[in-house]
Recover the amino acids of this structure.
């Protein structure tokens, strides 16, 4: 068995879904389980619909529903062949339900995380159905499984945590046997509580679903089909011309994803590591490119750095202890506050009297700062970017920090941190310096490439 996950762009249109059927058809003998994202930008649009409705902008919300309905009918029915009438009914039923919900929300003027998940889930419920119909119409037997019957989560709506034991059990009992009958298709990103309330795993969560299902059925491989040739040496939205990384370790991939390489959801690698299942990143527009293989034992690499990831628009909080030296319990109090606000901290650096933390931008930063000010001096800086160099060799190559800081000597560095794993070297600069810094670093570390590792 293999898991093949197709992201939003890989199912965004009739042509994209036709490419998917060809890709899946070629690997049919491997008993594929296909996990799909919502089509194109559907999730963004569904969430926007919900927000418009809750803000009382009923007509705008209903217009968005109309656009989504038309989009799914046009691109979806085109691939359904003889079953188009059935699919038409399903699609209309979902959007009729959404119409009613939008009307209700615009009266109540309130949007709970639970309603948000119910609305967001429509994207994957429909895309998975459409893809299953498309496979059948291409002559490939297919079984559609509602992911909400398989992926069991807690009730932290919009960020639900998976109950792995129960989910793996269901994968073994229901998903694995279904592959005998045809290509299984499931929606990513969505799950349900034990009480059957629909939940989602957080934005970008379809990669995670693929890994969970892969681990649950003991897949031999997890393929993540997307719109780039694999993991690249730099984020293509920041720097064009990055090189494809042929193989990378689980640890390096996790680090990259965590610090902004959107190509893979950071949580994805965990279930894959635990079950030692290789993950491949592949391009659905160029299926013959070998992509990137993420494994526990990648070959040795002559380059010091594997990739540069970055995350724009972050915030840092600089917290100075008001005592002379950091008092006992100071860090605990600091972290308790971030924990209570459920704000994950990305990067940390400390000195004897201060600690700097980087976080995603949040509209609660003033509340957080007020709490910290009860025992510390606090300053907040916004519009910053994290740049992170990742590679197993960073720990045994002398002089890396010198090369890094030499090549970005004219950027103002706001914070520096080297992860305890010694796998990364990260620092924070102003958003305005990001492109210049990444370009200079990429030139420094990737002008000469180890052909065994990079393309
Ligand atoms: P999908 O919809 O298939 O899940 P995503 O948009 O979530 O696709 O992720 C793919 C995108 O990740 C690419 O289009 C690319 O812009 C971005 N990306 C960021 N960093 C990297 C990197 N280092 N290598 C490859 N892609 C990256
Ligand atoms: N459709 C969801 C999102 O846009 C999940 C995913 O695509 O991974 O966040
Ligand atoms: Mg993604």
């Amino acid at each position: 068995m293999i898991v093949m996950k197709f992201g939003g762009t890989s199912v965004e249109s009739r042509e994209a879904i036709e490419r998917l059927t060809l890709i899946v058809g070629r690997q049919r003998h491997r008993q594929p389980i296909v996990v799909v994202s919502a089509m194109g930008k559907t999730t963004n649009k569904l969430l926007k619909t919900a927000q418009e409705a809750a803000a009382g902008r009923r007509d705008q919300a209903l217009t968005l529903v109309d656009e989504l309905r038309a989009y799914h009918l046009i691109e979806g029915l085109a691939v359904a062949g003889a079953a188009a009438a059935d699919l038409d009914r399903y699609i209309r039923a979902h959007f009729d339900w959404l119409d009613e919900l939008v009307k209700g929300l615009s009266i109540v003027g309130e949007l709970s995380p639970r309603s948000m998940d119910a609305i967001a889930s429509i994207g994957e419920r429909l895309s998975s159905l459409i893809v299953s119909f498309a496979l059948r119409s291409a002559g490939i037997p297919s079984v559609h499984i509602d992911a909400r019957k398989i992926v069991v989560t807690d009730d932290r709506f919009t960020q639900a945590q998976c109950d792995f034991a129960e989910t793996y059990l269901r994968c073994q009992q229901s998903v694995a046997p279904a592959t005998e009958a045809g290509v299984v298709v499931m929606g990513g990103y969505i799950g349900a509580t034990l009480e059957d309330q629909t939940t989602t795993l957080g934005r970008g969560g379809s990669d995670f679903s693929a890994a969970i299902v892969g681990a649950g059925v003991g897949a031999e491989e997890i393929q993540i089909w997307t719109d780039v040739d694999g993991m690249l040496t730099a984020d293509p939205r920041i720097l064009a011309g990055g090189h494809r990384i042929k193989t990378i370790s689980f640890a390096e991939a996790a680090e990259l994803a965590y610090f902004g390489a959107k190509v893979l959801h950071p949580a994805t690698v965990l279930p894959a590591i635990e079950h030692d299942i290789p993950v491949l990143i592949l391009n659905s527009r160029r299926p013959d490119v070998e992509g990137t293989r993420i494994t526990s034992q990648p070959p040795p690499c002559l380059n010091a750095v594997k990739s540069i990831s970055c995350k724009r628009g972050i915030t840092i909080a600089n917290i100075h202890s008001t005592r002379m030296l950091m008092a006992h319990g100071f860090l605990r109090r600091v972290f308790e506050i971030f924990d209570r606000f459920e704000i994950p901290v990305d990067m940390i650096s400390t000195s004897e009297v201060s600690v700097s933390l980087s976080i995603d931008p949040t509209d609660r930063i003033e509340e957080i700062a007020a709490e910290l000010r009860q025992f510390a001096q606090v300053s907040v800086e916004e519009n910053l970017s994290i740049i992170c160099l990742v590679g197993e060799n960073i720990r045994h190559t002398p002089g890396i920090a010198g090369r890094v800081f030499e090549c970005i000597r004219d950027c103002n560095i706001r914070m520096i941190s080297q992860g305890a794993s010694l796998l990364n070297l990260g620092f924070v600069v102003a958003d305005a310096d990001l492109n210049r810094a990444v370009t200079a670093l990429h030139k420094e570390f990737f002008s000469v490439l180890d052909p065994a590792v990079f393309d």
